[in-house]
Each structure stands twice: as C-alpha cells, then as structure tokens.
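Two folds, back to back.
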Amino acid sequence: MKRTAIYGTGNLAANKIKELVHSGADPVVVYDRLHFWGEFCGIPIRFWGHVWKEDIDELIICAPDMYVEEIYRRIFDAAFNNNIRILGYGGEDLYEIFGIPDYRLDSYCYSKRSLKDLYAAIDDAEAVSFDIFDTLIMRRTMEPTDVFELVDIDSGKKFHFTDDFRAVRREAELKCGGNIQRIYSEISGMVNVSQSDIRELIEKELKYESLLTVPRRDMVEAFKYALKMGKSVSLISDMYLPHELMKNILEKNGISGDYSLFISCDYGVNKGNGLFQIYKNKINANKYLHIGDDLYADICGAKREGIVTFEIRSSMDLAKYTTLSALTGYARSIVDRLIAGIVMEELFNSPFSLCAHGDIIEVDDARTYGKVFIAPLIFYYMEQLFLYVKQNGSIKTVLFPARDGFLMKKIFDMYYKEHLSAEGRYLFASRRLCNEAADYDNTDVGRNYRKYLKQEGIENEGEYVLCELCSKGSTQDALNRILKTSLKGFYLSRRDGLDNLDIHSLYDRKEHKAGVGLFVEWGNCIESVMSSNDPSCIAIDSTLQPVYDIERRTEKEKIFMEKSQKGILEFFDIMSDCGLIASGEHISDDLCLKLLSMQGNVVLSGELDFLNERGFYDDLLQKRIKYHFDRHIWE
C-alpha cells in the first residue's frame, strides 16, 4: 500500500484526510510550514526537513489554489530527491503542471540591484530601519529551527524527550509567542522537565544562537553608513529574544552605535500587526526606509504603514537562483543542514553576490574553496573513519601516508584522538618510495625503509589501517610486500586497480560509479589540498631521515594548499563547537558529492584561476598531468 502524506493543517487537509480514511488509504503523516508537533485529525505532525525518515510515496498539498505553486516550489527538491510524488488536492500530478522550479527570471530581476542602489536609498531617507535575521546577520543553518535540534543533541539524551525537541520548542513558541522565558514555561507544561532543566535548555539555546550567527558584511557596512550619514537608525525584528539578549548578539557581530531596537517580544506585536506602527509613533520622520528580506513581514508589512522598502535576499533565497538550487534537497540530517548553512554563509553572505554574474557563482579565494568544496567531503571521510576504527577494536594504529595524509593526521589529532584508543601515525609512504622499497628489498633502499618502519613501530604483527583519499591501492600493496602482512585500507574513493587488498572504500568503483568518476576528475586536486608543505619523500637515508625530491609545485599551488587548509580547519572548528565531531549523526554522501561537483559550475578566479587548467604534478609518474574533459582522462 502506498504511504501517503498530507501537506497542510487547514479545512482542506481535514477533508482530504476524511476522504482517504473512508477509502481505506490512511495517511501516515502530516507536514506543515509552521507546526512540527502534535496531531492533526489523529495523524502525527512531523518536521518537513525529516521527510527522508518517513519512506513516503506521495504527498498531497491541501491548500487554496493561490498557494499551491508556492508550496510546490518550496518542497520540490526534498520531494524529488526522496522519490516522492507531489499531488494536488484532486490527485493531479503537480510535476506535470509546474515541472522543475525555475528561478532564473527572479535571479535576472534581483541581480540588477546593487549595494550602490542601497546606499542611494539610504541617502534619500530620513529614518532607516533594518530587519535583523537574514538581513544584518544570518545563521549558519538552513532554517532558524535548526538551532533547536542542536540543543536537542546537546541536551535531549539527558532529558529523555519522547518527541523531537525541535517540534516541541516550535509548538511552544506558536502557542504562547512572547519571549524565550514564556516559551520555555510553556515547554515545561508540555513535557516532563524540571525548572533547573529548563534553565539549562535556555542557556544552551542562547549559546547556539550566539555561536551560529555571523554578520552579513555588506549589510553591516550599510548600517554603519546610515549612522555615519546622520540617519535615525532602528532595528526591527520579530524575535523571541528580549532587548538585552539581542543587543549582546548584535554587538558580537559588530553592530553597535546610536540606534533604536524594536523587538516583537518586547511589545507583544509583530511586524504584521502593529510593530511598524509603534516604530513610526516613536521615530518621527518625513521619509522612512525599511530594509529586509521577508516579502510579507518586511516588505508588505512596512508598505502598509507607508514606509518605502528595499528588499534584499537571504542567502538561502540567493542559492535558489544558482546551480546550488538543488542543494537543500540533499540536506537531511542536522549535520547536512549545518554544512549547507556554512556553504550559504561563504558563497552568499552578501545579498549582492550575484550582481556580477547573474546566476553564476564566483569564487576567488582558496580559503572559501577549501571550506565549501573540500571540507564537507573530508568531514564525511573522517567521521566514517572514526566509526570504522571504533567498530574494529583490534586496530591500534591509523596510518596517514605522506603527503596527502598530512592534513588528515592533523585533523585526527585535533578532533578525534580523544575519542579513540588507537593512535595516529604520519608515515613517509609515497607510492614511489614504497614501491621502490618493495621491489628492491635487499638493497639499501629496501633495508633503510624497513628500519624506518620498525623505528616508527610499524611491524608485521601489528593491526593497522592505511588511510588513502583516491587510490588504486599501490601503496598498500607495496607495504604489504615489505611487511609481509595484510594491512587494512580505508579509502575515500577506490580507483580501478588491485583487487586482492582488504579495502573499505566510501565511494567504491562498483557501487558509486558517478562518485568515482568525480574523483577521477578532482582527485588530484583534493590530494594537493590535503598535502604537506614538504616536497615528496623519495628515499630514507642510512640515518633513517627522509630524502626529499626537489619541489615541483609552483608558489601559487602552495599558497592555494595552505589557504584551503585554513578553510577546512575553520569548517572542523564549527562542527566541533556544535558538538558534531564523532557524534554519529547521519551525513549525506550525496550532499558531499554534490558540493564537489559544483566547483565545475562556478567561476574560479583570483587565487584559483590556475585550477581551470586542472594541472598537477604526479609524484609516481614524475610529470605534470592535466585533466582532459572531452576524454575524461588525465595526461
């Protein structure tokens, strides 16, 4: 029997549920934009972001005709990526009616407005007001309620919530409105938690609100410009955090000075039902300007009070206009959603980031490149490596071969070592060095290398796992021959090569053909990012010290590597701060692949322009090779 879901909690939804129940096709779950908790007509209400957990076959949108397309566009990516048919109230297939949402016209119209236009609008006003969230500051998340799920992870196991805390927290806010204290007072009546637990939950929510908010830099500069030009500046927000707590968050993000603050929870009304009127009564001016991202709350709400508006776009809205539009459909867990939030922060921090190229993204610095395109994949690899080592209790040493194991070893020591009994070891073990040592076992090359391995505590009776990014297994095979044992291998992607090796590959050449194809294209680039600053080790001398080849990389390639690594470590710092290192939370491998592939659809300029050639030096082949897109090979 088909598993059917309902979208909506109004009269149409109630009628459709009755119709389905009467026909014997009971709906299994209800989704709604506002409500995530409780029941509707006896059917459980769930958070739409968790639709991937429910194994839904079809979803029926139960809403007035004027809202159906808007809802369809909002949920399309997640439904499409989870193979869910979207139907109208009468059973019509909405994909046949609306097709794939196309935001290009919106992009064309919006990208015509620039920061210069905003400054001109500020110049023309006497009183200037700014929305706060998604305008002056933004969260590193897909949705505001993602903060609640982090609180859930941090506290939920302790308090044993029987329901998703995100849903409980959201429902409490809808029931009572008001400030955060009233919301949590409502929660204490919904679930069994003590007052001391409530205080702890509030502290954790405030911690994550502060941790995850970052300034939208161009907008903060516009705020400062308005102050500098002597405008009467105000901030207006529909928010449950009272005045003083909001001030702290704003100051942390560089927003300070002589401004007025209008928060809905302080006045008991929001932008749609009186907050703008209160603002105008307190701030007397001849010409008002309000700047915000929400069409209904900011733009329509302000216009109803005769205020001129300047609409900007949130980072999530900007992403819809680009090749990243499908990204949200791959974001399933809280980790995925935080990854998406980090990407949005980096690429669309400025509301005017699309002014130069329309719907094309431009990336010009290596730190952003590493943080957006490489870090999610490395995080996925390290989390899976952690689980692999933890589950294989016999593994005593995790081997990170030089040079592309350099940053992995650093990440292992910084973030994972404390969670494991196994130690990490950085090992001089290039393909060239290991194969020569194995092939010339009875020469100085082979003898010196065996002595080096013994010095490092690597002997044939140990239990080791060799970490590789993109490999055929030649280094592992050579080490097996040298040690006369069988190492375990843990690879990001296994290329066509040796089949007689004990290898666990996250993207296997048989099971993930599309993914492996991407690593053929980008593998050398990934390895160059993860490498050490030293040249390749070509031998171990008689004193058991490394002998380095001459440096083959250009200065630009080395700067690219160092700055990309900085971005990757920033990514891991955020994950660590959010308690998501070694957490066991689900990570979408499809999301990581999607981000890796996206770099082929952006404009790479500045520090990254050399990547357009895709040329890197190969240590084993001892020559610079280049990827040919027409034949899908490196030469």
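---
second:
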Amino acid sequence: MSFGSVINTLSSFTGGIISGSRSIDSYESMLLMIDAHVEKTLKMEDQRIREEVQKFRGVPLSFSESRPTIAWLFALIREASVRVLGKNPYRVQILAGLCLADGNVAEVATGEGKTLIGAFPAAFFALQDKGVHVCTVNSYLAGRDCEILSPLLNYLGFSVGHLKDAALRTEKKKAYDCDITYGTGYEYGFDYLRDQLVLLERMKPGPGVALRNQLMNKPDATPFLVQRGHQAVIIDEIDSVLIDEGLMPLIISNSGNGPHPAPLPFQIARDYVLKLDEEHYDWNRKNHHITLTQSGHDFIYQDRSIHPTTGMVRPWHTYIDLALQARYLMNRDVHYVVIDEAIQLVDQNTGRLFKDRKWRDGLHQSVEAKERITITQETSSEVAISRSEFYKLYSHFCGMTGTAKENKREFRVVYKKSVVTVPLNRPSQRKELEDAIFMTPELKLKALIRAVVGRAGTGQPILIGTRTIASSEEVATLLERSGVYFRLLNAKQDKEEAEIVSMAGLRGSITIATNMAGRGTDIPLGTGVAELGGLHVIGVERQESRRVDRQLIGRAARQGDPGSGQFFVSAEDELIVRYNPALSQKWGGLKPAEDGRLPEGCAGDVKDLQDHLEEFFGRMRLESSSRERWLDKLRDSI
C-alpha cells in the first residue's frame, strides 16, 4: 500500500481533509485590521496598553467569531514590542503569529525571527489564565527566549517563568504557576511523568493508612504536583518534535547505581559472536535490525559448556542477539560516545548528547561490554509516554519550523493540524548547487576539501554539516592536514554550541557541525561577507529525509542575504548502502569526470530515493500511530 493510499484511507476519520495546507491569504484581512490600529496604539499610554490587553483575560476568543478583537490584541502587542524591545515586527512575523494563535503549524524560514513571532500566540493563549508552555529544543534556547521576551510580556501584564533542567520541584512549581513558561519539550514531558508517579503513589497507601486517617478524621495530604494542567503549548522545531521524535517514548526508569551484579553473560556473548558466520544471522540494513537465524540459533546451543552458569536473566540466544546489535548496529561516535569510561547516547536528529539516558533491555550493557568498560546495572521503566501522546494532552497546540511542507499530510492526519507556509520578509538569494556525486568516499572528501580550500582563500565563511561525529572528525583531520583553520562542533562540545554557530558567518570562518547542532541560533554575516557571496553551506552527505537537508541548507541566505549550498555524496554513503545499494552498480557503469565526479543526472537518483524513504517512513509512523491509538482505547476500556 502506498503512502498516499494510507493517507486516503485514514482521511475518512478526519473529515476527508487530507491536503494539510492552509493558505496564508486567510489571515491577510486580519493584518489589514491590525494596520488600521497603528495610529491609535501610538497615542496610548503604557498603562492603557496593559489594561487593554488584560481586559481580555478569561474572555473566550476564537478565530471564527472574534477576529476584530484578536486583531486589536495583536496591534497592542506590536506596539509594545516597538516600545520595549525596539523591534517593529515584520508583517510576515505578525502573519505567522496569527497562524499559530489559530492552532496551525507555521513554516517559517530560518532567520525570519521565530523568537519574536512566538510572543504573539504566547500572549494570546495566556489570556485564558490557565498557563502556556513554550517548548524549545534545548535549555540554552529556553533561557535565551525567556530573557529576550520577558520584558515585553511583563509589560503586557503577564508573569513569565523559566523551567530550568534539574531544578527543585518547588522551583519548577513557581515556573509553572506563571502565565507563560519557557522550557525544553522533554522537561515538560518528564515533569508530567513525575506528577503521574506522585498520583500513583497516592493511590497506593500502606496497609491501614486510609482507614486510620478516616478514623482520626485526618484528611489525605494533597499531592504536590508541579504542573497545573495542559491548556496551551507552542512548539519550536515542531517537525523534529512530532515527526522525527513523535513516537519516541519519554521514560522515567528505575536505575540502580554502580556496576552490574552479573556482567559475565554480556562479556561471554561479546566474545562468542566473533565465532558466528554470516549464515548464522540475518542483517537487515534498511530496517536497522539484526537477529539470529535458525542455523545460528542451533549453533550457539551446540556446546552448552561455554554458557554462563550464573547471572542470566534472559535466554542465552537473547544475549547473543544483543551482542550482535552492539557489534553491528551501534556505532561509536555515531550512536554513542565514550566519555570518562561511560556510554553517552547521541541524539540522531540533532547530534546532541542524551545526558543520563540508557538503552533498555540489556542493549546498553552489551555496548558497554563491546567497549570493554564497566558494565552498569540495567534500568526498568516506571512510567512512560510518547511525545506524540504527551502533546495531545494540550487543549491547544501549535508550532513553528523552517521545514514542514514535506509532512503536511501527516500533520493533518495524525495531529489534525494544517501547515501554513509564511512568505519571506525579503526574497531569497540562496544558490543551491547541484549535488557532487562520487563513487568512493575518498574521492568525495578529496573534492570537498578542495572546494573548501578554494572558497576559504577568498575569505567566504563556510559551514560544513556532517551526519555523524566520526564524519565531522574525519573532515577536521583532512582540513588540518591542508593547513586550514576551522572550528569543530559536535556532541562533544555541546556547551559551546551557540557561540560557535553564531560566529559561522564571520569572514574567513570555517565551521564543522554535526547534523543540526546549533539549530535555533542566528548566523549573522560579518562585515564584507555579503560581497563574498555570503555563507556557503556544505553537506557531507544526504540524509534519509530531504526536509533535514533543507534545514541544513537553510542556514545560508537568511533575511535576503546572499548565500549558497551544496551536498557531496558517494556511492558508499549510509543512505545508498543501507537503502539502495543497486545505485552503486548503476553509477559504476558511468564515465566520471577527471576529478571522479559522476554525471549530474545521478542527483535525480538520490532525490528519488529520498522520496521513496519519505513515503516508507511516513507509512511506518502512521501505522505506529494507529496502533498506539488502538492501545490507548484498549487501556481505557480495561
């Protein structure tokens, strides 16, 4: 069944609306209303603006019935922005704010000012007096946006809180009690789960406690919950949160401290997989899955004398399967890094480290055995929820991203959200060069380094985006040999992320960044850089999703600045080897140029593959979402 047919099938449950798009034109009339209020708001005293905004507190406002009132509210917010921040919002920023307040997904290009855009729906939803949660992708951006917008929102009469990671629950409660709270999406989710654990504990009093309290006329203690409900949420980088990570669970686990009490089964399994031949296991690279075949199953049980005699909590073949996954699927400096003799997981969507997280069901211990470091205790889940289901708890949710149109149907079917593409404030000057495709990674990297050195000689700044930490360090080594100065940013330098990325547009700057590291950080051009062609972005390989590639290229040519971008691809890249190795054979029959570059038509093969994968993964997400909804209904009925 094709992705389109899955959508058409599911659309019957969503009113038949499957386009997923809404025109920006539907908000143009409101923008004219807002413009009509300019002279009036200019003459108003500060106190009067605050009073006018706050008189709508608790008043139901809807886009179907209250458009003139909402336009007046947005006009007041615009005037406040001019007075407090010295920023007069662009018309397209106000349009984006209207889209969000109406509950849509707004596609807003990189550099168009999403931070200020978010103030409009935040103030709009805050008037319902039930709290607004603004979600960012990392704690730095949450703190930055809170600091920037607090003066504006306070001026309008709203209290603002910053939800800091790992803060005391009493401090978090204060942040949640504010009208508008800034924090990371995962922290909101984990706080919800922690509150659920508090409620579960309340439901399990010790023997006789409830009766004793009743006999003594002693009321039950009110549980201390940090969150006060889920009225409205504004999600930054909503495609990453709901599409890339929507089905990934947020989990609070029981994790023991210290070494594993029985590490021997993991260590023996690690060594035993070296004896296996290819006939003993089935490795599906496309689905990232490996398991023993029947032949392999029989082989590992032939000689039981080598099996561990103690400490096994699962069948022997399960330990072997885990060891196979650790050896062949979990790659160092791709899926994890080793820091201070400990495994730290890498977020495959952002390149950042997952602090204090572990793989479950023995996989983490198998990777520790593979790396020959201390094997730690296993974790067990206490409570969990997917990101998708968590955000559905909110009465109102909306979000922004620079790349949403590729998944507009999925947003409509799964989340009942329309995607609205917001026009640019200034026409784009970005030049996207044809992909440079080579047979081997050696030829690809040689050409890439040559391109970097050539542009660096002019002083043009270059941002090089890599898929993995290992790739970023390989490029860094080659540039170092070429005598080129650069700055390296990957998951190992997370604290310096914003600073390094913000300097990527300076004259002569060369920056290597893992995946979307620094996403959300502005890259202004340095003096004289526009005359050199602006920022040039190089992608070291193509991703499965063209949307992710657009995120990288979108770092160049912001706000009408000049800029350019190009991807370098080889037949041995992960995308080709894992999903369509036949392309390598096809390309091998073509005549390359002197530098090894293949004909330009090969770029079309890569785009076709990405289109296929977008359908494939979209279908998987829809099927998983359907199963999750079915399980929810089953749990509710039980």
